[in-house]
Amino acid sequence: MSIALIAGLLLAYGGMLALCLGLERHYKQVWKRPSSTLRRALRAAGWLALAASFAASVLAWGWAMGPVGWFGLISLAGFALVLLLPYAPRLAVVLAGVGWPLLGVLALVGV
């Protein structure tokens, strides 16, 4: 698996998580106090992360298969969030942060 593909998956997961936390209901599940400014920032960051995920998918697969792969990545990320948010919302947030150091280690190893 290429680094661009893993980065695309992490960005898709982070973007979908940010969009979910941009909603008051899911925000309350994790932090209890909804702040409208932070929720707006999370929504903007979510869309930017999804756009970056699209760019990483195109980098990994090219223009022919990149958009198709991107839809697969955001579907996979959304499915993971559907399974995690009702039962372990804080774990969903932790997983978004754990993936980036792991990606750095994989990049250093040269995968």
From TrEMBL:
Keywords: Membrane, Transmembrane, Transmembrane helix
Transmembrane segments: 6-23, 44-62, 68-85, 92-110
Pfam family, one: DUF3325
Entry superkingdom: Bacteria
Protein name: Iron uptake protein
Organism (species): Zestomonas carbonaria
Organism ancestry: Bacteria, Pseudomonadati, Pseudomonadota, Gammaproteobacteria, Pseudomonadales
